[in-house]
Amino acid sequence: MSVKQMALVWEHEFPHNKQSVMLALTDHANDLGEKMFPSVARLAWKTGYSSKQVSRIIKFLIDDKVLVKVRLHSRYRPNEYKVDWSRAVKKEDFISDKDREDKMSTLSDPRVDISNPRVDTTESTEPSLEPSFNNNDIGFSKVIKAYQSLSGLPISEFIYAELGALYDEISHSINDAPLAHPNKGIGSEEFLVRAIQRMGRNIEKPNINYLDKIVQSWLQDGVGAPPPGKRKRTAKKKQPNQLSEAMTTEELEEAMRSE
User: Fold this and answer.
1) d(CA 201, CA 54)
2) CATH class of the domain at 3-87
3) pTM of this prediction exceeds 0.70
């Protein structure tokens, strides 16, 4: 456990989901930010995310080059990671309300009312409680509405986070896809809304795990690919009866008698 490395997590810009996983990871680091090899299950237990979410967030951190995979997992040991802080964005220095008031009191303008400091419009240093996507994103709002209209119930925090993780994964995948891939040029919003609509046609009640299977299928084969359980099966060719083609029963008996 390195308190030094955990403190560095607070000093850098991370959305809430990445921040939670980084805190859980650096809890296992040495003071150099190395030798981190906790299991995904343990990270999921610490953060409260599912194992699937943790794996996705780790992938995003590796894509950001903040997290470096040092050694692949073996039978008895998980993947090993280290942190590259040079790739992370450092926060601006924290200014307390008192320091801000003191700074304002030095202004010589008598019209400045220091008893009622102006509201700070800069970005809050408090971590967001939402996943990494912008919850004001119009596209993601349409995704939420599509899922909610299908379920007829309010969206739980778990479903909200899972949809956000899928939205992020789709965005990363489309950006990284080669130009010839059928998903190139399709927005994350359109992709996920169409996947939700496909899920509604295939099953009675929405199921986030089933939606994830559709998304993974479409990420690989393109939007509109056959959903899980609907893929075409190639008919097995009947094997010819080699005995009947080779000789008849009478011919076989005659051959045995001759021996």
Assistant:
1) 30
2) mainly alpha
3) no
